[in-house]
Amino acid sequence: MKQNFEIAVFEGDGIGPEIISPTVAILKKLAALSPDYTLSFADAPAGAAHYARTGESLPKASMDLARSADAILLSAMGLPSVRYADGTEISPQIDLRKALTLFAGVRPVTVRAGQPTPLNMPDGKEIDFVLIRESTEGLFYTQGRGEVTKDEARETLLITRDISEKLFRFAFNLAQTRKDTGRGPGKVTCVDKANVFRAFAFFREIFDAEAARHPDLIADHAYVDATALWMVLKPWDFDVLVTENMFGDILSDLGAGLMGGLGLAPSADIGLDHAVFQPCHGSAPDIAGQGLANPLAIILSAAMMLDWLGIKHDNPAMTADGKRLREAVEAVVATGKVLTRDLGGTSGTADAADAVAAALGLV
User: Fold this and answer.
1) Which long-range contacts (CB under 8 A, 24 or more apart) does 333-340 make?
2) What's the CATH fold of domain 106-264?
3) pLDDT, averaged across the chain
4) Which CATH number is correct for 1-100+273-363, 3.40.718.10, 3.20.20.70, 3.40.50.720, 3.30.9.10?
5) What does the pLDDT look like over 268-327, one tens digit per residue?
6) Do the beta carbons of residue 280 and residue 295 sit within 8 Å?
7) How far is CA 10 from the centre of its chain?
8) N vs C: which end of the chain shows fewer Cβ within 10 Å?
């Protein structure tokens, strides 16, 4: 009997609607061919444009839909010209992370043979690691509530044992899954600044306690500044990296740079019961409506969604389709024949999405 999964769709701002539309179309075609699962999609209004029209950035009805859905597919959010009264940007994606306790921000970094990259890659080397960013606390804890006076400003960094234990358990489980499927050696690296801050010494202590529960996996540590260096000099040595919110925010953009840009950077924010899948890039309002946006990051995010749903609900067909979708995008990028402007090509949004569909045999 087919399993049906409801997906809450946040179409976003700027280029958001035009990149999520072909992504949903591909997902519908994959599901239509599967004997083991179906997908239904429900629109969830939110974002900067919605705030400008209604005064609400994340309506209660959309939040309720997100809570009840099996997964959330969220496109690019926010507009630089639309802000809250305190000057901060509209960011429902961060509100979702906090409300649903999506503590694990998963940022894959993959560079396959033949794929363009700013690095001078040694022959035979590929990059395939995952950065896990804690997404609910850290230096983002007091977002919008920092203390500012005429002479000073303060933000509070928070690291809790409860969230850190969940985060590290997730990281080691992911490393085990990657090892079992041949994608990594089974190594988890804790990225911190434990030599300077007591909060990060606390973070590392909790990591070490979880590492002791996984004797078949490798656990090590790296300071965040050294990690940034090694991500440029030897990124193929990494498997799973786990770090605090702000460090992860910065390092994930560096990882996107290794792949050639944010247009190839997918992400997921995962908790115990819910997960949001979205591209790492912004809404690019300067090219909105022109058919020029790169849809590959959100298509890769959709592949992550299928994989997560398949594992969570013991549906191997979904996991297999997630892998097929990811590999189709990688094949399109590696051939270099259909690339959008941000990747050095001349193709448009529809061309790139159609190329992925063709690689899957859907057209």
Assistant:
1) 333/112, 333/115, 333/116, 333/260, 333/264, 333/296, 334/112, 334/113, 334/114, 334/115, 335/114, 336/114, 336/116, 340/263, 340/292, 340/293, 340/294, 340/296
2) Isopropylmalate Dehydrogenase (3.40.718)
3) 94
4) 3.40.718.10
5) 999 999 999 999 999 999 999 999 999 999 999 999 999 999 999 999 999 999 999 999
6) no
7) 15
8) N
